[in-house]
Amino acid sequence: MPTPDVVERRTVLIIATLAAFLTPFMGSAVNIALPSIAADFGLDAVSLSLVASSYLLATAIFLVPLGRYADIYGRKRVFTLGVAVFTASALLSALATSGLALILFRFLEGMGSAMIYGTGVAMITSVFPPEERGRALGINVTAVYVGLSIGPLLGGYLTEFLTWRSIFLTNIPLGIYIIYQIRRHLAEEWADAAGERFDIVGSVFYGGMLLAVMYGFSHLPEPGGVAAIVTGVALSIVFYAWETRVESPVLNIPLLTSNRAFAFSNLAALINYGATFAVGFLLSLYLQVVRGLDPGTAGLVLITQPVIQALFATPAGRLSDRVEPRYVASAGMGLTAVGLALLTLLTATTPMTYIIASLVLLGFGFALFSSPNTNAVMSSVDRSFYGLASGMLATMRTTGMMFSLAIATVTFALFIGSTQIGPEVQEPFMTSLRVAFTVFAALCTVGIFASLARGRVRE
Question: Is 60 exceeded by the pLDDT of residue 417?
């Protein structure tokens, strides 16, 4: 019979890994359905991007506060609530009657995702010893990539044969099953910061800061977008002043100012996701609008990258248990930069083998980066900060995703305007595509140095 510790580790890994599959599956499946959603609700290019970015915005706003809340009041409790909220909002999204309603329900879905992301990795880190942590986190990251792999393929066929609404309905049974497993098998609770006060005021400042900055990026180059970014910067100053004075801050500032490994690992994650997330969004539109592929076939092409990520994420995690994570992660960042550079050369007639080869390189680079980087973040903090560290890392991920979509949105606004994306705007669309990929490749190149600058995680 397995010991209680082994059973606990296995249960935590299973439920956290299933939940880690849910959110990326939804995101990648919805990406492939965006043209169909735009046609149903008559959304222009900028409004369409809000269907994806509203979810990311909510996730980013709530990740750190809810991660810290979980440290104080219980990670299992917040994780369970997150799965419930995510599942309920998926049902509401499937029943949406307008583009605005769908955007609002996606925002609610992002709140549920924040509760999952801010606690799942923290729970794994809580129960696995350091010498096994990279492997366990690698398995968790692999689930993310399996979700990303299945999402475009299944989402494409669901959209083609059952409409885009069926994508949201597929998440409901798995959400219910995860809650059932938690209730039946997981009695342990983790609240390593129990007794500390939750910083409500700091959480409000933090959310307002991110909301203003992200809203601003998504509305550039309009004057309102610039004003929102300035407001966000002002709120960040207020937030910093508050957090350095309050006894139990929502974000422990010294983690960023004096913990080099933690700070640069998070910065590397922000840059990496900022340079890569919109690849699926842009290529989905390219393959369907420019190349004329149906959603299912486009999904088959896009599945290449996450399949490679899923295959190599766990071995990369195991490697980071033996080799300093910064070396593995930095090599992955470099390969990702090369893959993005290849995509800057896309034309309306680029061979499909070239596109697939670029996605293979991107997938391998991202797999080498993600698991070791996650291991570096979680291994660089005390266990009383696991929820905060998990939330912070996920915030960098979702903020990077939002920033990536903002870059794509800005290029649309500059070269296409508010016109709905279609064959008639193919030339300006291709220009915006190449500009976006050029920016992403440059970002990833900078990210190599941020990844190397983290220093050693182990003594």
Answer: yes
